[in-house]
Structure formats: structure tokens, C-alpha cells
């Protein structure tokens, strides 16, 4: 049998390229992930949504196929009811200085989950786990310092709420009974009761920057907080309908995170600030897809109260 050596070499290279791309996550089915809809308030659904958002952000905006596939797989497993653990320190190439810090953060998260926090406060627990994994990834890359801070703050804010909630219930054990039933009951018990928007920040097109007008609004919001001391400040980020929905969801989170950083700088404790990202899903002014509308590019600041968090 006579072999064409050039064809053999090309075939080997093609196979190697496919293996490489698969290992890098390029072959992951992101469109299928994008179509997945994880409804429900239980921990598994909330975690699936959180990892889905991270996966599509990494794939669509960062072109980080390895981490996108990692998050996408976690999203699918969580959505299928499987147990999904936070990322492991040993799986990341971290500096010696950061390993103890992130190791301690993971132990805090595992301790809270071990005490039933995911059943009692599933949305907050999912935010804590996704925030930790995001922080772990960004710290390994160690060059996008605003992303590191955003992920770290997301984790720290959520884990503080879980720990405060558990401390307020020292005798609480892991709730018995079906997870979905317990989660639904607990969500009704601890969901923040929000007033109408106390203040609204507006943003330029495709921007998460705070202008002087926004700074003045934040000053007034901080003063209102100090005078009334509500339990929680909710920051709801929004965009208009120009651009892809996935990009807009990430942009709305950056806007909320910018507002959170500004409030922290004004003396409000991080654990009292909740950040939410709605993308283009909740416009103040209804428009057709693709339309730029300045009134929809906003962060709504709401004061909320909760008995437990």
C-alpha cells in the first residue's frame, strides 16, 4: 500500500487542531447554552443562570474559550440537578501570595454551603459561588484589575450576607424535605421588600462610567442611607436595546458594579449592597430591538428591608 505522506501529515495536523480546539473550549455548543432557560428560584436554577452568564461573557466578549467552556459545563450540570462545586485553588495558576487568600475565601463559601445556605438563600448563595469562581479565574489572569475587583466584591458581598444570615440563626441546620419546596418558602421569607427607585443614574451609550451628575445622585443616595439606615441597598442595572442581549447583560452588571464601588467609597458597607443585572429586559421606555434610548441606560437605586439578610 502506498501512502501519500503529505496527506498523512495534513490529516494528523487536522486531528491535532481539532483536539486542541476542543480542549480550548472552542467546540463547546454556546448556541445551545444561549437557548437554555433556567426558571425557578431554587439554588440549582440560580447557579445555572449565574454560570450561563459567565460563560457567554467569556465567549462573546473575552474570547476566553477555556473558561467559557468551564462555566458552560457547570451551568448545564447545575441546570440538570447535579451538584456543582466551586472552583478549586489547585486547578489555577495563582501566585503564592494569593493562594492563602483565595483558599480562605473558598473555605468560607464551603462552610456556608455546608450549613444549608443554598437551601435558605439560594439566589445569594448562587451569587457567592459564581462570584468566587469569577474571582478565581480573574486572579489567575491577573491583568484586568477592574474585573478582579468586580468579581471579588460580588463574592464578598454575597458571602457576608450568607454568614450574617446564618449567624442570626445559630441553631439552624440544613432544612429537611425537597430542595425546591424549601427554597421557594425561604425566598418568600427573605426576599427584599423594595420601595420604588429612590434614585436613578443615567449612562452614556455603551458606557459604565459615572459622570458628575451621577456622582451627585450617589451623594444624595448615600446621605439618604445614613439618615434612614435601611438593611439593604439594591442596585438594578439596565441597558437600552442597542447591541446583543448577552453583551447588554454584562454591561448592565458593570454599571451596577460601578455604582456599588462609588457607594462603598461613600462609606456604605459592602455587605449591605446588592447588585442585579437585567440587561435590556426591563426597559423604562419600550422600543424596538436595536434602538438607542438614553432613559433605558440606567442603574436604579432602591432601598430595601429584609428580616434575615
Gap from first CA to last CA: 74 Å
What can be said about the biggest beta sheet?
5 strands, mixed
What value does the Rg take, in angstroms?
21 Å
Taken as a percent bin, the fraction of beta residues is 5-15%
Mean pLDDT: 81
**How many structural domains does the protein architecture include?**
2
Structural class assignment? alpha+beta
How many DSSP H or I helices?
11
Shape: globular
Number of strands: 5
Run of helices and strands: HHHHHHHHHEEHEHEE
Low-confidence stretches: 7-23, 173-195
Q: Give the helix proportion (percent range).
A: 55-70%
Structural account:
The chain folds into 2 domains: 38-190, no CATH class; 193-305, 2-Layer Sandwich (60s Ribosomal Protein L30, Chain: A), CATH 3.30.1330. The protein has 309 residues and is of the alpha+beta class. It has 11 helices and 5 strands, in the order H-H-H-H-H-H-H-H-H-E-E-H-E-H-E-E. The longest helix has 23 residues, at 145-167. The model is unreliable at 7-23 and 173-195 (pLDDT under 50). Strands 1, 2, 3, 4 and 5 form a 5-stranded mixed β-sheet that branches. Helix 3 runs parallel beside helix 7 (122-141), helix 3 packs across helix 11 (245-265) and helix 7 (122-141) packs antiparallel against helix 8. Helix 11 (245-265) links the parallel strand 3 (232-238) and strand 4 (273-277).
List keywords for this structure.
five-stranded mixed sheet; 60s Ribosomal Protein L30, Chain: A; 2 domains
Amino acid at each position: 500500500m502506498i501512502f501519500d505522506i503529505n496527506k498523512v501529515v495534513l490529516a494528523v495536523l487536522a486531528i491535532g487542531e481539532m483536539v486542541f480546539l476542543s480542549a480550548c473550549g472552542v467546540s463547546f455548543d454556546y448556541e445551545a447554552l444561549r437557548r437554555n432557560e433556567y426558571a425557578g428560584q431554587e439554588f440549582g436554577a440560580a447557579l445555572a443562570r449565574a454560570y450561563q452568564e459567565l460563560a457567554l461573557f467569556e465567549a462573546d466578549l473575552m474570547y476566553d474559550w477555556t473558561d467559557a467552556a468551564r462555566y458552560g459545563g457547570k451551568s448545564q450540570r447545575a441546570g440538570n440537578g447535579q451538584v456543582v462545586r466551586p472552583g478549586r485553588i489547585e486547578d489555577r495558576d495563582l501566585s503564592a501570595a494569593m493562594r492563602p487568600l483565595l483558599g480562605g475565601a473558598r473555605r468560607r463559601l464551603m462552610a456556608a454551603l455546608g450549613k444549608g445556605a443554598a437551601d435558605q438563600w439560594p439566589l445569594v448563595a448562587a451569587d457567592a459561588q459564581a462570584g468566587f469562581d469569577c474571582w478565581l479565574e480573574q486572579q489567575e489572569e491577573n491583568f484586568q484589575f477592574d474585573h478582579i475587583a468586580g468579581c471579588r466584591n460580588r463574592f464578598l458581598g454575597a458571602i457576608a450576607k450568607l454568614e450574617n444570615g446564618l449567624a442570626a440563626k445559630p441553631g439552624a441546620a440544613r432544612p429537611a424535605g425537597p430542595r425546591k419546596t424549601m427554597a421557594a418558602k425561604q425566598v418568600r421569607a427573605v426576599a427584599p421588600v423594595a420601595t420604588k427607585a429612590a434614585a436613578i443614574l443615567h449612562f452614556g451609550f455603551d458606557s459604565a462610567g459615572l459622570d458628575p451628575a451621577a456622582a451627585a445622585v450617589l451623594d444624595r443616595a448615600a446621605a439618604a442611607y445614613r439618615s434612614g439606615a435601611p438593611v439593604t441597598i439594591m442596585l438594578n442595572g439596565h441597558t437600552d436595546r442597542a447591541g446583543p442581549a448577552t453583551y447588554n447583560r454584562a454591561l448592565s452588571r458593570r454599571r451596577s458594579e460601578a455604582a456599588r464601588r462609588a457607594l462603598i467609597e461613600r462609606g456604605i458597607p459592602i455587605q449591605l449592597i446588592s447588585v442585579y443585572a437585567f440587561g435590556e429586559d426591563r426597559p423604562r421606555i419600550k422600543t424596538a430591538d436595536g434602538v438607542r434610548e438614553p432613559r433605558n441606560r440606567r442603574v436604579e437605586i432602591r432601598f430595601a428591608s429584609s428580616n434575615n439578610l
